[in-house]
Design a protein that fits this description.
Strand order of the largest sheet: 1-2-4-3
Helix content: 40-55%
Strand content: 15-25%
Order of helices and strands: HHHEEHHEE
Shape: globular
Oligomer: single chain
Distance between the termini: 30 Å
Structural class: alpha+beta
Length: 135
């Protein structure tokens, strides 16, 4: 995040292209959804993933990935610090990952995003800005 603070909407717009994992391409609808999701992530105080600093080994943050075959869906993933994970037992790393995914699911749901039902601890898939019937 920008340590100088600033408008979270502008920061979300700035981070959107850098938070997309593995160089994936987003559709226009996914990009709009990505900006909105990162706005909420920033409001919650979580760092967005930043591909530009990940090259320096700082990989921690909320990343985004398109869902194959679904032009309007976006997977929201927590990227743990890979170096720190090397020093922890695998079960603890998996438990932390699942807990962060559940936290993301809860944060997005509280903000009324349409989040696909899925197993506890799995990275949430956001289907839209609002769940049908909740506007």
């Amino acid at each position: 995040m920008d340590p100088r603070g600033g408008n979270h909407e502008q920061q979300a717009r700035s981070f959107t292209p850098r938070a997309v994992l593995d160089g994936a391409e987003l559709t226009e609808a996914q990009e709009q959804l990505a900006r909105a999701v990162l706005d909420v992530v920033l409001l919650a105080g979580l760092p967005p993933y930043n591909i530009e600093v990940s090259a320096d080994g700082e990989e921690t943050g909320v990343g985004l990935a398109p869902v194959q075959g679904r032009r309007h869906a976006l997977r929201v993933l927590w990227r743990q610090d890979a170096t720190a994970a090397l020093h922890l037992p695998a079960e603890l790393v998996h438990a932390q990952q699942a807990a962060m995914h559940q936290a993301l699911r809860t944060i997005l749901s509280v903000h009324r995003y349409w989040v696909e039902d899925g197993p506890v601890g799995e990275a949430p898939v956001v289907l839209g800005l609002t769940r049908p019937g909740s506007a």
